[in-house]
Specification:
The protein is an alpha/beta fold and about 350 residues long. The chain has helices spanning about 5-15, 55-70, 85-90, 135-145, 180-190, 200-210, 215-220, 235-255, 260-285, 320-330, 330-335, and strands at about 20-30, 40-45, 50, 75-80, 100-105, 115-120, 125-130, 150-155, 170, 195, 225, 285, 295, 305-310, 315. Helices cover about 35% and strands about 20% of the residues.
């Protein structure tokens, strides 16, 4: 996949609400196989779609891209050595001068090329689903759209579980018309947030009715009643603002739909732990004894060249060239501490 096909795939991932990173080659030093303008998508799982360079560049870009997705901050990478940097000559600096904000990723390949790669995160925007036909419901949608969110509104008679998913934030604002039906359908979609615009008394009656109908308690416990921050007696405009403020707060904290600070913190900690585990898995690898590159050897990931065993130690290589050099004189390259 090359050129505009990569961008078309990126647009499709964005429409599906999936997080990924977009890597673009902005400078090259031959004979690197990466070309100016070459692009690739890197998913959260570490899959690379497109082309930014060969076996030397790809593992390093994938590792950096997954961290970009995790922290949401773009990076400019120099794959090579600081002495390869074009900016040193461009600005009259001494050799090896690295501009502020650039991340140097040392790689050593037989090709002796170098690349600068700009890696930017593409994170899904929140999706708000509002059920109801009141002026407040439409205002809530309009406010969310102003923030750049995806937002749509449904009448309760037409709303179904298919109109939401686990990434959605659902607000039921039917004002007593079909509250029970709307909450039941929304709960079946397992959205990250589910709020009901109603008094606590009315909310308790709705939840109680659904419990009697056999709706699982864990689903009902996730219904926030009343939706929004507690501002006391307010107008419908202020209610819409309070609901959106709560959703922004939960999104910023990484929280789920229960609405409590404790659950938001627990969800955030779980997400951080899961992300750390994923990064650790992708970074698990061995050091190529010939060129010093980190070679990914985690389960399920391909290895650029097959491993080689010498004196009871397994060695991994970035490519066939390094393996051939090792096999020609293994004693000079063998390092007992090499990870395998």
């Amino acid at each position: 996949m090359h050129g505009w096909q990569v961008m078309e795939q990126a647009a499709e991932l964005e429409r599906r609400g999936e997080a990924f990173a977009l890597a673009t080659v902005v400078w090259r030093q031959g004979p690197s196989s990466g070309q100016l303008g070459s692009r690739a998508i890197i998913t959260k799982a570490g899959e690379l779609i497109g082309w930014i360079g060969g076996a030397c560049a790809e593992p390093s870009v994938i590792r950096q891209a997954r961290q970009v997705i995790s922290d949401g901050k773009a990076r400019l990478l120099l794959l090579g050595a600081p002495d390869d940097l074009p900016s040193a000559q461009m600005f009259g600096a001494s050799g090896g001068s690295v501009p502020e904000g650039m991340t140097v990723v040392p790689i050593s390949c037989q090709s002796e090329g170098a690349l600068e790669v700009y890696v930017e995160p593409v994170l899904p925007v929140p999706r708000l689903v509002v059920v109801g036909s009141s002026p407040m419901a439409q205002l809530l949608v309009d406010l969310a759209l102003t923030l750049g969110w995806r937002a749509d509104r449904h009448d309760w008679q037409e709303f179904s579980a298919a109109d939401a998913d686990e990434r959605s934030m659902v607000v039921v604002a039917t004002q007593g018309h079909g509250d029970e039906e709307a909450i039941e359908r929304a709960a079946a979609a397992h959205p990250r947030y589910l709020g009901l615009v109603a008094s606590k008394r009315r909310g308790a009656a709705v939840v109680g009715y659904l419990a009697e109908r056999g709706i699982p308690r864990e689903q009902l416990d996730r219904v926030k009643v009343p939706a929004g921050l507690d501002l006391g007696k307010t107008s419908h405009v202020e209610i819409a603002v309070s609901i959106l403020a709560e959703l922004v707060q939960l999104r910023a904290s990484g929280g789920g739909s229960a609405g409590s600070v404790a659950e938001a913190e627990a969800a955030e900690a779980e997400a951080i732990e899961a992300e750390a585990a994923e990064v650790e898995a992708i970074e698990a690898g061995a050091i190529d004894p010939v060129c010093g590159m980190t070679v990914p050897v985690s389960p399920g990931r391909s290895i650029a060249a097959g491993p080689c065993e010498y004196e009871g130690v397994t060695y991994y290589f970035c490519g066939a060239g390094c393996r051939r050099r090792f096999e020609s004189d293994p004693a000079s390259y063998a390092r007992k501490e090499t990870r395998c």
